[in-house]
Write a structure and sequence with these properties.
By secondary structure, the chain is an alpha/beta fold. Helices cover 33% and strands 21% of the residues. The chain is built from four helices and five strands, in the order ββαβαβαβα. It has a five-stranded mixed beta sheet, sandwiched between helices. Helix 3 links the parallel strand 4 and strand 5. The longest helix is centred in the middle third of the chain and has 11 residues. The mean pLDDT is 92.
Amino acid sequence: MDLRVADYHGQSYAEAADREPLQMRDVNDVLSFCFEHGSSRLLLHSDNLPAGFFDLSTGVAGELLQKFRQYRIQLAVVWTPAKVTHTARFAEMAAEENNGNHFHMSEDRDSATAWLVGDST
């Protein structure tokens, strides 16, 4: 996965620069990129998420989200629910998580980045 530093209204964050899926073995590289660039914020797209992420029975979502929480990295994901096969339990979890401040899913990049940088305008 290729990462870059992006900017939204003067606030920087890390973002996937391609649609390459993240492999769980590469999560530490993503964390290293964030730390090296002084960012505690990460924007991914649904294509960047590991296989099994949208099916809670695989444990992939829990493992990935826990890892980012452990290192205090806020994660925003841009997705189109109608185009992503996901379980009903995943939809419930995503709705609940959207009320918190660690993980957020949004259908457009502007909303995702606004949440990520705390811009309520």
